[in-house]
Amino acid sequence: MQRQVAPYGSWKSPITTDLIVSETIGLGQIALDGNDTYWIEMRPAEGGRHVIVRRSGDGDTTEVNPSPYNARTRVHEYGGGAFAVDSGVVYFSNFADQRLYRQAPGELPQPLTPESERRYADGMIDRSRRRLACVCEDHTPRAKEPVNSLVSISLQEPQDFQVLAWGNDFYSSPRLSSDGNRLAWLTWNHPNMPWDGTELWVGELDAKGALGRTQQVAGGPDESIAQPEWGPDGALYFVSDRTNWWNLFRWKNGGAEPLYEMEAEFSRPAWVFGVSQYAVIDADRIVCSFYEKGGWRLALLEVSTGRLTPLETAYTEIRFLQSKGHRIVFQGGSPKEMTAIVQMDLAGSGVEVLRKASNLTLEEGGLSTPQPIEFPTAGGVTAHAFYYAPKSQEFTGPEEERPPLLVKSHGGPTSAASTALALEVQYWTSRGFAILDVNYGGSTGYGREYRERLREQWGVVDVEDCVRGARFLLDRGEVDGEKLAISGGSAGGYTTLSVLTFRDLFKVGASYFGISDLEAMATDTHKFESRYLDSLVGPYPEQRQVYFDRSPLHHTDQLCCPVIFFQGLEDKVVPPNQAEMMVEALRTKGLPVAYLPFEGEQHGFRRAETIKQALEAELCFYSRILGFDLADPVEPVKIENLQASV
Questions:
Q1: Quick check: 367 and 421 in contact, CB under 8 A?
Q2: Spatial distance between the Cα atoms of 129 and 25, rounded to a whole number of angstroms
Q3: Distance from the CA of 349 to the CA of which of 271, 362, 379, 526 falls in 20 to 30 A?
Q4: DSSP per residue over 157-189, as a string?
Q5: Does 536 lie in the same domain as 403?
Q6: DSSP β-bridge partners for residue 172
Q7: Angle at the Cα of 489 (from 484 to 493), degrees rounded to 5?
Q8: What pLDDT does residue 524 have?
């Protein structure tokens, strides 16, 4: 079929916002219980409610927590690890009141913990003692900041509440040995984040579940430990970056040893609880995933021989990996498939998709797939990104034109761009935009040294890499230098605003709950990230001038292009004043600016109507600023300081 010629940005696309919000869900935490599989579904059509879904061994699927119960914890604000299950009974944190609930099959949820200012996450069941061990975050008003600890709660007498470990700033990953006699956990202190330095501890449990003798077995302020898991033989497995890469280790008989050294990452940054990139099958086998050369791969590791055998799959994104015998389940995605809950049988019965994030069937010929690219950046080092070319089965751009480029700056900033098929990316490429998703210095997947390129250089290295990435494509003749846009959320919003303020390359930008004033961020955010900027910028207030110098808000005199802002009004991570101060500054300066605040939204948008409005407003804003017509009508966005009405 001959394609029609139409200006880039003006192509009619089958991927509409209605399609994105009505046909797509988010998939999260996975747990296995006997032959049953459980997972979390985040449903935009239900206001972003998190629903626990059970799939029985015979294939029947049922919802566990009925509406309005929302299985989502606010520990660290980012949550994760919101439920645990044992013998068909589910224990979950409810978002509205942050209480723990118990739900037996066929029954309504029953509160396990009383009303309080406590929040709970990352729970595990101690069967022999009938207790639940988990992370507790206490927000009682008398505390200077929330107090974190490991606690144990009786499943029969909830008033029986024990504090197991306390005194440090943060805790995670309580894991019980197979014989029930030992507990392992992770802990760390300000100003470290879990990818900077954590400690792995082991303690002995008495008959009542109290901790006795404890010892630190790995980690420290300059070594990141992740995902402790016990083997059936009493060995404790964990991931450490002591060799620059997050590799697998084993602690046994009082000593720690590497299992397989490789220039690849076997873990992710612990922004949420429940990060799970490997699972212990038995005393000699581990099923694991690792990131190498732009994608995740699945493999089987034999502990006794040290042999790593790849397991061939189409998936390049793997999360929440769990195993029960020869059955393994994970969240998988690829450039041609949206994320799904996937089950594999190592005994040879193949792969089964249990749940897809979307049942949409998209023509492969219309999909833009990510091309890993490397480009030189400041200091003679290499930066990484994924490039998506414009793609449509019906349209092509004029031969003499080049497409507009939208540079995406991911959040974190300690995070990474995903290669899984995302309708939010195809929304742009199917309309004629090129996308560059940048894994700037500081991103994960490339070792600790690459991650630490951002140490005290946030607003410098990330900005340079985004600019260099765009120039790399310009030099190759791939994109139109007069139609360059940049967009990012949270930390990516800060990078976006910094690029637009301190560099003169891009013509327009979009900030989703982005940071504009580093000093305000350092003094007005939640506990988990309250000292994060010590490593990204420098100690505060000692380096206050650096905070001022790198804050876009204080340098709007250098900003000369239009910006659109999106902000949740209940955001506790990046409060609304971060966007509102910047909007007022642009308003005063006379630059075109638009601001869309959303009632009821927190950090990251979850409601269908919000996601739809934000995407359409961003497209509308670009069309007005960059000068292209839209193929379909969208709800107009109010642009201040723009003479022509939208």
A1: yes
A2: 37
A3: 362
A4: -TT-EEEEE-SSSEEEEEEE-TTSSEEEEEEE-
A5: yes
A6: 186
A7: 65
A8: 86
Q: Cα-atom radius of gyration of the chain, to the nearest Å?
A: 24
DSSP sequence for 247-283: EEEEEETTEEEEEE--SSBS----SSBT--SEEEEET
Structure tokens belonging to residue 272: 């949420």
Q: Residues 6 or more apart from 356 whose CB is under 8 A from it?
A: 338, 339, 340
DSSP H or E segment with residue 549: helix 544-549
Q: Which amino acid is at 349?
A: S
Kindly state whether residues 550 and 466 are assigned to the same domain: yes
pLDDT tens-digit series, residues 483-536: 999 999 999 999 999 999 999 999 999 999 999 999 999 998 899 999 999 999
Classify 498 as helix, strand or coil: helix
Tally of domains within the chain:
2
For the chain, give the mean pLDDT. Answer: 95
pLDDT of the residue at 347:
84
What gap in Å lies between CA 211 and CA 427, rounded to an integer? 53
Per-residue model confidence (pLDDT) at position 253 = 86
Q: Which tokens go with 453?
A: 């390129």
φ/ψ of residue 264, rounded to 5: -155, 160
pTM over 0.85: yes
CA 111 from centre of chain: 29
Last residue of a domain, one of 328, 360, 392: 360
Domain that holds residue 298: 276-360
Q: What one-letter code names the amino acid at 30?
A: I
Do 291 and 424 fall into the same domain?
Answer: no
132 touches 183 (CB < 8 A)? no
Q: What is the distance, to the nearest Å, from the Cα of residue 125 to the centroid of all Cα atoms in its chain?
A: 26
